[in-house]
Protein: Crystallin zeta like 1
Organism: Podarcis muralis
Amino acid sequence: MKGLYWQQNSSGEETTFVFLEKDNLPVTRDNYVKVQVKACALSWINDKLLSEIKIKKEFLPVGREIAGVVLETGNKVTFFQPNDEVVGILPLDSEESGLCEVVLVHEHYLAHKPEKVSWLEAAGTIRDGLRAYTALHYLSYATPGKTVLVMDGASPFGTIAIQLAQHRGAKVISTIYSLEDKQYLERLTPSVGVKQPLVARIIDETNGTCDLTESCLEETGGLGVDIILDAGVRLYSKENEVTSQQLLPHKHDIISLLSVGGHWVTMEENLQLDPPDSRCLFLKGATVSFLNDEVWNLSNMQQGKYLCILEDVMEKLSSGVFRPHLDDPIPLYEAKVSMEMVQKNEARKRQVIQL
């Protein structure tokens, strides 16, 4: 079987993606399911995280969000049977690439795919849906009357986060970094009910002239934002920053626009808070949470909650609440080029390989 793998050289600086032929899968074990992959979404590989949890391989499998059909089940599998349509995220230590024709997966990493949901939508939504639920249900709680700021709302994750927050009755504010992003968010409306934009206010950060803090305080009547989902922050101001870094908000700006009792959910793993920042958070009774969706796979302590999230993501996809920001279907022979774009953060839409 041919799959896509990430080869890292000894210096750790340059990486290449290669197709490798692997031996046929072993016989299905007790709690494992053999799945024929129909679609696989590509996501950024956190090599630093992999090295920290001691996953060192010459060839790292690429593609973990899969959707497919069950071919065979182990003797102790209870949730699935042959011909079931499933979706899931392969574990970090998976030996197989999700771009292989057939993969072997433990049943606790899979959920049923609704019949009306396409393979591409299922694979392309499962990770962003998991991330949005983690941010807006477990690290914070979006409810009617709350205001949610989603940074870079036109990204694949931002799109799902906006849809989940609005579905729960929250008022959504979002930032954009291009005219195309603005047009996309303006077209984003509920699939049912009144056809009004999901985003109450779009803040244009294209040229860096718009004051994020001032805009958010104006929109909230000076009370501040209840929940903030960032897409990266600037820790310090540097003269030689690249343009993409200059467009990111400064950490002090984010803290300034938080409401009393607000929640800042960050994806900045190297976040450092100075004493004045901590003092401001203390006075507001606000919290900072780190969004790492891999935590569900790093520990199986809350496996039941994880599976409930996967099922609920599929239910919302089936009912039209979630409408992912997907690129056109990509054939397998173009997977290498697409993955290079994803790893460089150059893809604005979710890349999904059709097998």
User: Anything to note?
Assistant: The mean pLDDT is 88. The two ends are 13 Å apart (CA to CA). The domain at 128-290 is CATH 3.40.50.720 (Rossmann fold). The chain has two domains: 2-113+325-354, 128-290.
